[in-house]
Amino acid sequence: MTSTDRPSRIGRPLPAFHCPLDTGLVHPRAKELEALAVDWLDSHGIHTDPVERAWSLATHSADFSCRIVPHGDDTALLLFIEWNYWANAVDDWQDSGADDVRTAAVADHGARLLRTIETPGAGVLPDGPMTRALDDLVTRTHALLTPFELRRFTEGTRDWLLGAAWEAANAERGLMPGLADFAAMGTLANGTRFSLTWADVANRVRLAPEVLYAPAVRALTDAAGFVVSADNDLFSYDKDDHVEPREVNLINVIAHQEGLTPARAVPVAVALRDRAMGLFLRLREQVARDADEPLARHLEGMGHYIAGCLAWQDRAPRYASPRNRNELPVEGARFDIRYSDVSSDDRTGAPPLPALAWWWDLLDG
Q1: Average pLDDT in the 222-243 region?
Q2: Dist CA 26 CA 310 (whole Å)
Q3: 100 pLDDT band (50/70/90 cuts)?
């Protein structure tokens, strides 16, 4: 049921997405795993209100997870799906614009969440359905992951929580950051390392630290995260356009810095996104030449991450029928996005943004 016909500030349809990666892959047991994850949600009583439950399911967290991990171990993938449903509930609180979502509250919750992950049973979060569900997730995660995988997962969670606190701090001060700052910190909140850790766990890919943290692999991780974050800023723009001050996202940052309307900022944002995509493809091909089997599969997983996120967001009612315009998610809502074979920006050099420019320094020649 539509509650408002307020038009989008960035317009429709969304611009064509340059993504020369396979966006049609999904895990063959996606529906079965989704049913198990929803049973888990219900058994923990996370959503006693049917409306809240409907919006939780509208995240399509199972589809998200099963497109990022189109092949892999069912046990690990189910746990990843459940983590995503749980994390989206937290994310909705962080993005709600409610009076209690102050920087202090976001930072305090984040610190307590991290200590709970690192020290199961620490008892630093208030009792309730969300905490009991978290305790279950943490216990099973410790049992499944190796110590190094657990460290990677914690780092990925820390990225997400630091990014959320940074965004809350900007909103609290009424500050729209510049593009250079946003390029450095804005992508933290999408939890790229959180997701890529689970992709490797589900695919039984185990990289040595010196491989995972090599400059070129770190650059690829950051570039993949930037592309996914830019795409999410397009898909989620309408969902958050009621929040004042305006949401810190790539479109609003460019609009503010360049004195543009959000609609006119979109092509600028897409051009920067496409330059990052081009860098990702070139650098990944370069690294793949000498990659052993585990690294090659990790690089493949990064591609699934970008392509899977695109296909998921196209179909997720969370974005296609946003809550600030609808009382309930619209079943079957989607964007029906278009794809482009060519980049909207054919420049091959680095943009003048220090947090991104070093990626290009790693290219041969």
Answers
A1: 96
A2: 12
A3: confident
